[in-house]
Each structure stands twice: as C-alpha cells, then as structure tokens.
Design a protein that fits this description.
The chain is of the alpha/beta class. 53% of the residues lie in helices and 9% in strands. The strands form two sheets. Strands 4-3-5-6 form a four-stranded parallel β-sheet, with helices on both faces. The chain has a two-stranded parallel sheet with strand order 1-2. α1 packs across α14. The chain is globular, with a radius of gyration of 18 Å. The two termini are 20 Å apart. It comes from mine drainage metagenome. GO terms for molecular function: 4 iron, 4 sulfur cluster binding; metal ion binding; oxidoreductase activity.
Length: 231
Amino acid sequence: MPNIGAATARVLDAVGVQPLLADGAGCCGAVRQHLTDHAGALADMRRNIDAWWPLVESGAVESIVMDASGCGAMVKEYGRHLLHDPDYADSAQRIAALAKDISEYLPQFAPQLKSLLKGRPVDHLAYHPPCTLQHGQQVRGDAERLLRDLGFDVKLPLESHLCCGSAGTYSVLQPELSKELRNRKLQHLAETAPQRIVSGNIGCIQHLQTGTTIPVQHWVELLDEALHGKP
C-alpha cells in the first residue's frame, strides 16, 4: 500500500538510510503462487530479480527491506523456487539472502529512533504477529520489542500464534471460515483494550479492519507518526 511504503521510506530516512526503489519491480509473486499459477509466480520473481540485480551487483544496497511480511516470506524463498533455473539460481539465492522484514532491520536504530520521537500518538497497542512473519519467516518478537523500547505499551492477544483469516487469498476463496478466524482474532485483540491494533502485513491489516472500529494499521505507520509529530 502506498501509505505504508511512504511511511517506511520516511522512517528509514529519519535514521539516515536512503531507500531506493527499483524501476520495474512489482508483485513478489505470492498471489499467483497462492492461486497455483506457478509459471506466473516464477515470471514475477524473475522480473523482480532483473529489477533489483543492478543495485545489488553494484553494491548500492545492503538489504532488500520489506514492509509486507507476506512479500518478505516469498522473496526469502526465491532461491528455492529458482534453484534449478541456470539463469537465475545464483542471483535468486543472493536476493533471498538480502531480504529482511522491516522489523528485522529497524531495531539496530532503536537508540536513534528514541531520540527522534516527538511523542506517541497513542500509548496502548495490541500487536497481531502475521503468520507470514512468525511462521513463514520464523521472525518473532522484533516489532513488539522495538515498540516497547520506544515507550509503547504493546500487548499480544491470546492465541497470538493463530491466523487472522486473511491468509493470502484465503479470505476470498474461503470467506466464511476466514470471517470466523477474523472474529476470533478480533475478540482476543479487543480483550487487551487497545487504542490501536498494529500488524506487519497489509493482508492482515485490511482483513482485521473489516471487522472492527478500532483503527488497524502497520506499526511502521505509527512509528512514522511518532517521529514526525502527526496526530
């Protein structure tokens, strides 16, 4: 989503990291893969590698940072998906190794971020860990730990390991089951009495927002507000 991408760019800029966008990069391939369009997914992967490779090969980038954990989970698998492609196997492995979720990348700047905060828009947060982050990427605790280090009161709901029901295309293909999972997740999130619900994947954020009046957003958007004094 453009608003999340813009917030990520501003947060990185605030700590002196120049974000670069590669011309020609697009969808990571996850949606096509979910829909069993494997050839289309591989085409998306190759297109992205072609777009990113000049920046990687020249040493212009140190990491490929993702602010959607579903995309990050997919990009980290590029090496496996293209393992037997003689033209892309090596570059796919390199791209996968450089991929990081924003929650993996930002904690190194925690002291700097803390010194730059202009206030906290809210104090009490509920954090929903996306499945693609905690299970797919095996990344757990980084986002909520960073937010706590910056002074936010962050609570995890009961059954935080369970899916919210978005699950890529699951909310479209299995709407009733998806809604049941969403409502169960929202009940547990509401029990923490949050002022906002934050997460790290656009699919989760949009899906959860359809069932609650509590604002749901990417945690990096909240951090952007805190850094730039936005209401």
